[in-house]
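Usage

Read records sequentially. Each one opens with the input sequence:
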Amino acid sequence: MNRRRVLLLGVLIPATGLLSACGRSGQWAPGMVEIKWDRDVCTRCKMIISDRRFATEVCGGPDSVCHKFDDIGCAVNWLADQGWRDEATTRIFVADYEHPATQWLDARTAQFLPERSSPMGYNYAAVSAPQTGSLDFGELRNRLAKGRG
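and closes with the structure output:
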């Protein structure tokens, strides 16, 4: 291998790794679209998504589009107006409160802890396993539908 080629490979390979690392911070569940922290806005309230502990993403509908939210309450209330909310193909991802921006949970199987100060004041945080006082997704939806936070 000639010296020029060695030098070129020595520069390009590390640069490629750095550039790809910059593009996707955090780990994303299969089917999710990357959330660009401090740039993307909530589909419902238009607030910038910055608190990684409460981020939510809903993917589905006729065009299988992913919608991003800053709070599970925004997602649940927005989804209530969508005719496709209960379809099997609709995916709802929530950040794991205990592992923000690195683990994503299926909202339908997650548990929600009340009284956690969230961006829009719905004050629920998603966790992977039941804990004292936690709610399942159905209970969370019922509470939010009745206007109780």
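Summary fields computed downstream for this record:
- Residues 100 and 136 are 19 Å apart (CA to CA).
- The two ends are 66 Å apart (CA to CA).
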